[in-house]
Amino acid sequence: QDLIHKFRVANSLLDINPDSSLLLFTEILPQLLFESDSVRMIKSHIGISDVYKNKGQFGSAYDHIWDALLLAEEFQDTLLLLEVHEDVGGLYGILNKYEEASGHFHIAMGLAEGLIHSGDLSEARFVNLYYSMAVINRKSGRYKVAMAYIDTCMTLKSKLDLGIANTGYLDAELGRNYLHLNQIELAEEYLIKANTFFNERRLHYEIMTSLFLGDLYAEKGSWIPAEQFYSRCLLLISLYNSHTDVAKEALQKLSIAQYNLGNSREAYDNLRSAFSISDSLYNSRSSHNSDLFQIKNKYAEEIKKKNRQILEQNSELDRNCLL
Questions:
Q1: Which pTM value belongs to this model?
Q2: Rounded distance, CA 227 to CA 214, Å?
Q3: CB burial class (10 A; 0-12, 13-18, 19+) of residue 116?
């Protein structure tokens, strides 16, 4: 019971205290392995991967989501396979590998359709998947396609009466797309709404909505609120130790805002800080891509190995039948 309690606490802390969540997941993994608790093992790897992803430690995130994928395939857990493919797609998206990301999201959608058809999954699960597709299309510059996916999410939410579920994230995406489409007033309306949602609930995605609002006010040439939101973004990164991958971007943009406000010294110091940030996994995109291709190759090798084992077993059966 203590093990199950720790697992539940670790899950509950993912969004509000990721460091504590990571410690708990890491602590219980060996015990889960000892007890052959495959479902909680997979979910723990997913949780650990999520924490590392938000810290910008993508190599470690890949390792754990890879372990989750292999375990989910080994135990043929379709529901968890869906979640893992969605997370792998998210990691590809971070590296701007949009085709690969979309591929994993479509696999997840296919799995979801099967589970919904069999009555093992609610149609509401599609809201998350459509949201993921909206993010990928926005990042790849297909803003109208992204808006169509968000619209589908909103329609499904209304149809299923899902209340505030996903509201902040969908509003943030709407605002971000409106900003790209140069519909500034609508962008401001939705981004402020989203930022308030995350601020009131003390959720870490306020880091991203603060960055987006900084971008909006920079676009308007309103440098005082732009500086305030970029500073807020950096403060929250420091406070939560989450979404650290955007710290360099936020510092560079803060520097531009400060320069436009005539604060040349502060602008210079923040620009220096931006370039002093370690060029670790996130900033070395070629290194990221290398890691991803290694995972892809490893995955292919595992499939080949399994196929060889099946062929060998079948050959052995044939030999036994002939004796």
A1: 0.76
A2: 7
A3: middle
